[in-house]
Design goal:
The complex is a heterodimer of chains A (about 150) and B (about 1000). With about 150 residues, chain A is an alpha+beta fold. Chain A folds into 2 domains: about 55 residues, no CATH class; about 80 residues, Glutaredoxin, CATH 3.40.30. In chain A, a hairpin with a 2-residue loop joins strand 3 and strand 4. In chain A, helix 1 packs across helix 2. The longest helix of chain A is centred in the first third of the chain and has 13 residues. With about 1000 residues, chain B is of the alpha/beta class. Chain B folds into 6 domains: about 100 residues, Roll (Ubiquitin-like (UB roll)), CATH 3.10.20; about 140 residues, 2-Layer Sandwich (Alpha-Beta Plaits), CATH 3.30.70.20; about 250 residues, Rossmann fold (3-Layer(aba) Sandwich), CATH 3.40.50; about 200 residues, Dimethylsulfoxide Reductase, domain 2 (3-Layer(aba) Sandwich); about 120 residues, Barwin-like endoglucanases (Beta Barrel); about 70 residues, no CATH class. Chain B contains 32 helices and 38 strands. In chain B, the strands form 10 sheets. Chain B has a 7-stranded mixed sheet, with helices on one face. In chain B, strands 32, 33, 34, 35, 36, 37 and 38 form a 7-stranded mixed sheet that branches. The radius of gyration of chain B is 29 Å and the shape is globular. The N and C termini of chain B lie far apart (about 60 Å). Classes of the chains: A alpha+beta (about 150), B alpha/beta (about 1000).
């Protein structure tokens, strides 16, 4: 995925649009991540100032959501649902296959790819489910995921 | 007293007027309907196991230990989050509840050290016993190998003992209002965190609220490990700022283990700040001097002597000076750091043993304009409210005060109110923290130029008059209508409009109008102010302007409103109450009043001088001119704290005898001939009076390290001069205060011990004291409006000195730093820093953190610069905590026209980069007849400030007669060239001619 390179100026512009909204901390962090692909440490103070909350408040939210990341993302991100419904229709196998196909372990990442577990994508009827760079896939196989990643990179 | 364990009711008290009856384990309780089941049970004497609940915090319901059963309801609700309702039948014990609690507790204990370092301090282990937990069956992953955070100098955070109950996070949020803590991550990874950094790098202000709230040993005072568990408690009062927090001094033998804020303390209700909670180590610092010392000349080394010798030496010298140079050649200064009793005996010694009224107090340099201004308008020198009142304010107008640094515990209370919806207007040249800080934002910040306070308050009053916002019912019922009519005419003049004054104040007129409307149109608006109001050439005028505003809008005489000076020191209120001013006897009664004098003359068996004595600056001037020869200085470092250091040093050098009574050798003692070692607050027995007139007991937790109480030393000195005072203890001194001072007539140590604290007036009419003053009528009868013309200060930015310097203090340090510099508080602030705006810094080639030379017309000093947007362009700011930087080398001897309170808040300066460090302080010497120059300045300043729409010469003559010594009056009459005086002063002199010469 293509993100704007981090700069505090660009971040200020993002925060100008979010800090006045209700519940601004989470919205701001998500907006920053959408823009830059991640929320660097130095953004914590900026978000705190913009939303008039403490750094600790921002840190609490930032670390609570697994979806928010503090380091730049790899080129592609693959998430596989490992919640109950998907497990019952083969997500364990999907994880094993994906680890082989992508040559990396679950919860590990390199510059190109990361594999992460996710607990329910709300797509239980079509499990096992996965998500590649934000795109939802039902009845997923490791090959599907691999093709999609190739197509996206 | 043995160790005092205060009861914890689990949740805060209910406030509802709706009382319901419930039955808990068969016991009936009647209780407000918004009370939790947990609190209701505790009040019925039934304690329910709990971990995440404590009564200083709102219920949270996370630990699941406090579950109960309620007749007719399913499940086991948590008793902390479930409110009572009428007829409820609750059981707190059953087999099912035991099983649940044991199960929960077993899970907690599986990830908690079997033996914690905190020992009995750990509520967890106690609770495990209470719920009957016998064994822990679980094994597996735990947090027991996490590292400790020792970065804070006073407490440890040991995550291995943490059960993530959130009490610390909530204490930081709800009580302190700093929001420095959070829970990071989620699930098993959840940990208490100071935003992912160590405590010292975080936003933590080290108030100690989290340590107090922690139910385990996770957050613990380090002294608990180094000294051991305390075994006894003494309730006493903090000796730092004017908030006057009550503490339990927890002792192990003679050693102080920790100071724990006392929940029943009227001022603080269980909260504290870094100074009171932790910065008490100076009391036993190795720099303490505990033996009296004397020396012939200030260049001689000190010689330690016995008390008898030192007292005899001092008395002999004082008597010799008086016989050679006259009765008036000696005097003394009382300290606002000392107890009421200690201060009372010093002023008594000066009036009775010295035989003159040359007594002044360090309040001269902070809140003397409050004394003058509130006496003129309301009739007495005191804040009108208790601190609790702020919780009922709809708007708070905060002027020239920075509570989060200088009055932190009040600031927390104010922040609580602001988070609940109270609106805030800040009037300050600086962007103080309260203008915008997590979860708080001021509605208006009137960022005025230093020195233009009166212009702002007049502009606000103008808007209120012009837009029909005056509360005429209140004014008609409560105020002096002649004074009101004169004031209304004055304030309505176009020159007082915000538009006309915008050029002076630099505050947009529309912003002033909005702020004035906000203040005037809510049901309850309160004013809180600090030294940013008083320490100006128009300090007294500003205080009167504030009083006018409150009266005009009817914001006086009930809860939630009022005029509240935030006192700088622990006992500023008390030292003023105790007759420390040269023109006033205890209880703010003028020395010229024969009836008042008679009360004291009978009690003291002496004859009192009816003329006012010298103020501190008069003493300095007179010392330089050679009239004033000897001074007794009780606990005040005037050589560092008073303005224009070179002038003060010259005065001290000119004196034949300087007696200093202090804990440490300080800047002033460099000029002293006698040093009487003082006692710390931990050794004192007496009372302090805080900013809300609350008289709190100060109880000794250890024996005096000098062998004597300070009041004994004063009494001994008086006796050696031939005047016996004969008290056996300090309670007897309070009895004498009560016997002679109507506002204190009901006060005694016995009553204080019984009630905890008393807000004066305490007398037959108000036997338990007076939380809110001026309820039905003002102390002086009718409230008096005073005309307050804005007279710009003579201290102006010029081409040579284009910036305006304003000074203040910081959270971790306190005034001249004599105490706090001798504690670990230097971790936060180890030197004075000059705050400068980016544009001013850039213009001068100054970089952040570099040395700069700061110069004014009276001196130069060097300190480090910090580039910040907290000051506007054209204004710079620093603190005065460190003698090395000596910020007062720069400040001038300009002062308030009515009280001589120094104009610390405005000094024209220039800043330049410097290659050298702070050793390069330069003092500019004073020339000529300094005293006569001061007399001319003061007289002209009075003339410029009195209202001109009535005969101003009468006001000037009256003022001079009330506050000037006969000697100064005579010099004004006889020695001053009339051409140097304003026409009003000349007219006044003609009026007063007969009087002065008679």
């Amino acid at each position: 995925m293509l993100f704007t390179p981090w700069s505090s100026q660009a971040a200020s512009a993002v925060l100008d649009a979010t800090c006045e909204k209700p519940g601004p901390v989470l919205i701001s962090l998500q907006a920053l991540q959408n823009e830059f692909g991640y929320v660097p440490k130095e953004a914590v103070e900026m978000v705190a100032k913009a939303c008039n909350v403490s750094r600790a408040d921002v840190h609490g939210v930032l670390t609570f959501y697994h979806d928010l990341r503090t380091s730049p993302p790899p080129k592609n991100s693959v998430r596989i649902c490992v919640a109950e419904a998907c497990q019952s229709v083969g997500s364990r196998k999907l994880v094993e296959d994906a680890e082989k196909v992508f040559g990396t372990q679950m919860e590990e990442s390199n510059d190109d790819i990361e594999l992460k577990p996710v607990y329910c994508l709300g797509n239980c009827a079509l499990g096992p489910s996965a998500m590649v760079d934000g795109e939802l896939i039902g009845r997923a196989t490791a090959n599907d995921l691999h093709h999609l990643v190739k197509a996206k990179s | 007293m043995t160790l005092l364990i205060e009861p914890d009711y689990g949740t805060p008290a209910g406030k509802s007027l709706d009382i319901v009856e419930v039955e808990i384990d068969g016991v009936s309780v009647s209780i407000p309907s918004d009370t939790s089941i947990m609190r209701a049970s505790a009040l019925a004497g039934i304690s329910i196991p709990k971990l995440c609940a404590t009564d200083s915090l709102n219920a949270f319901g996370s630990c699941r230990l406090c579950v109960v059963e309620i007749d007719g309801r399913n499940g086991t609700p948590s008793s902390c989050t479930t409110p009572v309702s009428g007829g409820m039948k609750i059981s707190t014990k059953s087999e099912r509840l035991d099983r649940i609690r044991q199960g929960v507790m077993e899970l907690y204990m599986s990830d908690h050290p079997e033996k914690c370092a905190a020992g009995d301090e750990c509520e967890m282990h106690g609770m495990a016993k209470t719920v009957g937990l016998k064994e822990v069956r679980y094994e597996g992953q735990s947090h027991l190998d996490l590292p400790k955070d020792e970065s804070n100098p006073y407490f440890t955070f040991d995550s291995t003992e943490c059960i993530v109950c959130n009490r610390c996070v909530r204490a930081c949020d709800e009580v302190q209002g700093t929001f420095a803590l959070t829970i990071e991550n989620r699930g098993f990874e959840s940990r208490v965190s100071s935003s992912g950094t160590s405590f010292i790098e975080s936003e933590c202000v080290s108030c100690g609220a989290c340590v107090q709230a922690c139910p385990t040993g996770a957050l613990t005072e380090k002294t608990l490990y180094t000294i051991g568990t305390p075994t006894r408690s003494v309730i006493t009062t903090c000796a730092y700022c004017g908030v006057g927090c009550s503490f339990k001094a927890e002792m192990r033998g003679d050693e102080l283990v920790r100071m724990v804020p006392y929940k029943d303390g009227g001022a603080n209700e269980g909260h504290s700040c870094v100074k009171g909670r932790f910065a008490w180590g100076y009391a036993t610092h190795e720099d303490r001097i505990t033996t009296p010392m004397i020396r012939e000349k200030i260049t001689d080394p000190w010689k330690a002597v016995s008390w008898d010798h030192a007292i005899d030496y001092a008395a002999t010298k004082l008597k010799a000076l008086q016989s050679e140079f006259g009765i008036d050649s000696i005097g003394g200064i009382t300290s606002s750091r000392c107890t009421n009793e200690e201060v009372f005996v010093v002023q008594k010694m000066i009036r009775a043993a010295f035989g003159n009224n040359n007594v002044d107090t360090c309040a001269r340099v902070c809140h003397s304009p409050t004394g003058y201004g509130l006496s003129q308008t309301f009739g007495t020198s005191a804040g009108t409210q208790d601190f609790e009142s702020v919780e009922h304010s709809d708007v708070v107008l905060l002027i020239g005060a920075n509570p989060t640094a200088a009055h932190p515990v009040f600031a927390s209370r104010l922040k609580q109110a602001l988070r609940k919806g109270t609106k805030l207007i800040v009037v300050d040249p600086r962007q103080i923290e309260l203008v915008r800080t997590p979860h708080i934002e001021a509605s208006h910040h009137l960022q005025l130029l230093p020195g233009t306070n009166v212009a702002i308050i007049n502009a606000m009053a103008h808007v209120i008059a012009e837009e029909g916002l005056i509360d005429r019912d209140f004014v008609n019922a409560r105020c002096d209508l002649d004074s009101f009519a004169r004031w209304e005419e004055f304030i309505s003049l176009p020159e007082n409009s915000p538009e006309a004054l915008e050029a002076s104040t630099r505050v947009p007129a529309e912003e002033v109008r909005k702020a004035a409307r906000l203040y005037a149109t809510v049901p309850n608006a309160a004013i809180y102010y600090g030294l940013g109001v008083t320490e100006h050439s128009q300090g007294s005028t500003m205080v009167m302007g504030i009083a006018n505003l409150a009266m005009a809008t009817g914001n006086i005489g009930r809860t939630g409103v009022g005029v509240n000076p935030l006192r700088g020191q622990n006992n500023v209120q008390g030292s003023c109450d105790m007759g420390s001013f040269p023109h006033e006897l205890p209880g703010y009664r003028h020395i010229s009043n024969p009836k008042t004098r008679e009360i004291f003359e009978i009690q003291w068996k002496t004859v009192l001088n009816a003329k006012p004595g010298m103020r501190i600056p008069n003493m300095f001037d007179s010392a330089i001119s050679g009239e004033f020869k000897g001074i007794y200085i009780q606990g005040e470092d005037i050589a560092q704290s008073d303005p224009n250091t070179s002038h003060v040093h010259a005065a001290l050098r000119a004196l034949d005898l300087v007696i200093v009574q202090d804990l440490f050798l300080n800047e002033t003692s460099k000029f002293a001939h006698v040093f009487f070692p003082g006692t710390s607050f931990l050794e004192k027995d007496g009372t302090f009076t805080n900013a809300e007139r609350r008289i709190n007991r100060v109880r000794p937790v250890m024996a005096s390290k000098t062998g004597k109480s300070e009041w004994e030393v004063t009494c001994d000195l008086a006796a050696a001069m031939g005047y016996e005072m004969g008290y056996e203890n300090s309670a007897q001194i309070m009895d004498e205060i009560a016997a002679t001072t109507p506002t204190f007539s009901g006060v005694s140590f016995a009553k204080l011990d019984e009630l905890g604290s008393i807000q004066w007036p305490c007398n037959a009419e108000h036997p338990e004291g007076t939380p809110v003053m001026h309820i039905d009528h003002f102390v002086r009868g009718e409230g008096r409006f005073m005309v307050t013309p804005y007279v710009p200060t003579d201290e102006k930015a010029t081409r040579k000195f284009p910036l305006l310097l304003t000074t203040g203090r910081i959270l971790s340090q306190y005034n001249v730093g004599a105490q706090t510099r001798r504690t670990a508080n230097v971790v936060w602030h180890s030197e004075d820093i000059l705050d400068i705006h980016e544009s001013d810094a850039e213009l001068r080639g100054i970089e952040d953190g570099s040395w700069v030379k700061l110069s004014s017309r009276v001196g130069e000093t060097i300190m480090k610069a910090r580039i910040t947007d907290q000051v506007p362009a054209g204004v710079v700011y620093t603190t005065f905590h460190f003698p090395e930087s000596g910020a007062n080398v720069i400040t001038t001897d300009y002062s308030d026209w009515a009280t001589n309170c120094p104009e610390y808040k405005v000094t024209a300066v220039e800043i330049a980069p410097s290659s050298k460090g702070p050793q390069a302080i330069t003092e500019h010497a004073s020339h000529g007849d300094v005293e006569l120059e001061s007399i001319i300045r003061m007289a002209n300043q009075i003339a410029a400030n009195v209202p001109t729409n009535t005969a101003p010469e009468h006001a000037v003559a009256h003022h001079i007669e009330q506050f000037w010594t006969p000697y100064m009056q005579e010099r004004l009459m006889k020695e001053v060239d009339r051409a140097a005086l304003s026409p009003i002063v000349i007219k006044a002199l003609a009026l007063d001619l007969n009087h002065v010469l008679s």
